[in-house]
């Protein structure tokens, strides 16, 4: 089953259970000081959970574009190194706003996975929240009892707050959850060890696919929990991981969307994918992953820039360029070609990609051209400094200079250094950065806006430029 069909089946299944399908919210968040990017399906419904806003529909289904590169849920360091975390991914979700609760949520999840998608029941494990003393929370007996009617007891695992209590951030709506994991290992591997012991242990093939969150609490800034006015259901299933399971693959990168991107990388670079942990494989995965994050961010109006969310996007892009440069010998822009491929693959469902295709391709290409110019000199300098420095720690001042002069994001320098067993003085770097910020604050009393309008009502893309002083252009297009 192709990814597009898997997504469609999810939406249709919940529509048949009287859910209304809604669009994904933009991947970039602009009106929430606690969040920079959408990191879960629930973000756009936060105010409904908190009781600040009424729900237009009590039951909703959607697929949400998510980006986990900052804040509480930051997966950037894992991406490419492992084979199942992405920066940008799609989170399929069904929602109950004060309507059905644990019983239906669990039973429908089971029905969808085993009857519609026909996942082998003997590969499934589920978890329930074991409770937590500090927060005065009890074992989730209710969820356990529902599961007990569906699945053998030895396949139900109690798990702790880290894995089974979902929180959006330091504050906000939260609640215990119950998760579904699938053991995708070969029969012989399954015969030699129990999948149960590998659940929640970051095994690449005993993989968490779906989180059913029982939203009933709110974390306040003093750390205390208070009950929400109503109880809600918030579920999130990673589409890429579901595709991995349904397509019988060992990694999300072996599924249809990524295979196409990787084919194109192989074609453009002449390098082969398939050595799993080699640097070149990591580089290929990083490129295939990062191009999605960047393309979706640009489509939603977030240009790469030197501040805020724009800088996060620029860093992701530069990270991909550097991997391609160092491990695949790439010397010419290439990611923009991947962006083209991606738009063809995903633009059918996410029309914002199609509508902004020229903009995406143009911006990615320009970013690549400009960073490739300084990359070689920057890398040489890091080599030299690292060679000349006694001990394992490089001064933060030097890392700041690389950032300031060559556009080397500190995390990129950190990554290159870590490959040499070295690190840098982060405090010193932060201090230099702060000094620079103060200098520019004095120089300009206007903040640089990195937020542009990407589409007007006629669907015409107006490229107003990035890194420009456009403080009044803060509005972006929401999908109709
Ligand atoms: P993991 O433990 O694998 O890091 P998580 O517990 O952080 O996942 P949740 O916050 O529970 O993930 O999100 C719900 C679902 O979204 C997960 O069950 C998974 O299928 C998917 N998901 C989460 N993070 C990623 C990611 N970085 N890339 C791809 N899919 C993800
Ligand atoms: Mg995680
Ligand atoms: Mg988890
Ligand atoms: Mg989880």
UniProtKB/TrEMBL annotation:
Single Gene Ontology BP annotation: alanyl-tRNA aminoacylation
Co-factor requirement: Zn(2+)
Molecular function terms, GO-annotated: alanine-tRNA ligase activity; aminoacyl-tRNA deacylase activity; ATP binding; tRNA binding; zinc ion binding
Taxonomic superkingdom: Bacteria
Occurrences of domain Alanyl-transfer RNA synthetases family profile (ranges): 1-480
Alphabetical UniProt keywords: Aminoacyl-tRNA synthetase, ATP-binding, Cytoplasm, Ligase, Metal-binding, Nucleotide-binding, Protein biosynthesis, RNA-binding, tRNA-binding, Zinc
GO cellular component, one term: cytoplasm
Free-text remark on how the cofactor is bound: Binds 1 zinc ion per subunit.
Entry comment, domain topic: Consists of three domains; the N-terminal catalytic domain, the editing domain and the C-terminal C-Ala domain. The editing domain removes incorrectly charged amino acids, while the C-Ala domain, along with tRNA(Ala), serves as a bridge to cooperatively bring together the editing and aminoacylation centers thus stimulating deacylation of misacylated tRNAs.
Entry function: Catalyzes the attachment of alanine to tRNA(Ala) in a two-step reaction: alanine is first activated by ATP to form Ala-AMP and then transferred to the acceptor end of tRNA(Ala). Also edits incorrectly charged Ser-tRNA(Ala) and Gly-tRNA(Ala) via its editing domain.
Protein name from the UniProt record: Alanine--tRNA ligase
């Amino acid at each position: 089953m192709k990814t597009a069909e898997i997504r469609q089946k999810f939406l249709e299944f919940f529509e048949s259970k009287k859910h209304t399908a809604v669009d994904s919210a933009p991947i970039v968040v602009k009106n929430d000081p606690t969040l920079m990017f959408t990191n879960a399906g629930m973000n756009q419904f936060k105010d409904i959970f908190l009781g600040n806003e009424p729900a237009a529909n009590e039951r909703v289904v959607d697929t949400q574009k998510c980006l986990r590169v900052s804040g509480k849920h930051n997966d950037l360091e894992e991406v490419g190194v492992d084979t199942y975390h992405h920066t940008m991914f799609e989170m399929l979700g069904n929602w109950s706003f004060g309507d059905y609760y644990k019983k239906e949520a669990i039973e429908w999840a089971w029905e969808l996975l085993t009857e519609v998608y026909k996942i082998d029941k003997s590969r499934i494990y589920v978890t329930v929240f074991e409770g937590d003393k500090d927060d005065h929370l009890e074992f989730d007996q209710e969820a356990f009892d529902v599961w007990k009617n569906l699945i053998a007891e030895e396949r139900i695992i109690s798990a702790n707050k880290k894995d089974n209590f979902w929180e959006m951030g330091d504050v906000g709506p939260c609640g215990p959850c119950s998760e579904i994991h699938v053991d995708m290992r070969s029969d012989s591997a399954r015969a030699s060890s129990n999948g149960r012991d590998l659940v929640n242990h970051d095994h690449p093939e005993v993989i968490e696919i779906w989180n059913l969150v029982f939203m009933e609490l709110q974390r306040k800034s003093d750390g205390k929990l208070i009950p929400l006015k109503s109880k809600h259901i918030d579920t999130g299933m990673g589409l890429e991981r579901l595709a991995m399971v349904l397509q019988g693959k060992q990694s999300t990168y072996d599924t249809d969307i990524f295979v196409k991107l990787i084919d194109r990388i192989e074609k453009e670079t002449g390098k082969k994918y398939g050595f799993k942990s080699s640097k070149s494989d990591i580089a290929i995965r990083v490129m295939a992953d990062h191009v999605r994050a960047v393309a979706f961010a640009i489509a939603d109006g977030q240009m790469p820039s030197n501040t805020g969310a724009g800088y996060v996007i620029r860093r992701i892009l530069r990270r991909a360029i550097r991997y391609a440069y160092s491990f695949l010998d790439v010397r010419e822009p290439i990611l923009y070609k991947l962006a083209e491929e991606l738009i063809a693959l995903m633009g059918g469902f996410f029309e914002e990609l199609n509508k902004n295709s020229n903009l995406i391709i143009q911006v990615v290409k320009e970013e690549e051209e400009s960073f490739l110019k300084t990359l070689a000199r920057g890398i040489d300098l890091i080599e030299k400094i690292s060679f000349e420095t006694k001990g394992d720690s490089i001064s933060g001042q030097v890392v700041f200079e690389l950032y300031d002069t060559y556009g080397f994001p500190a995390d990129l320098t950190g990554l290159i250094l870590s490959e040499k067993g070295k690190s840098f003085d982060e405090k010193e770097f932060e201090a230099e950065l702060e000094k620079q910020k103060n200098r520019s604050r004095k120089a300009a009393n206007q903040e640089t806006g990195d937020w542009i309008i990407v589409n007007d009502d006629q669907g015409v893309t107006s490229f107003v430029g990035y890194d420009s002083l456009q403080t009044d252009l803060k509005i972006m297009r929401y999908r109709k």
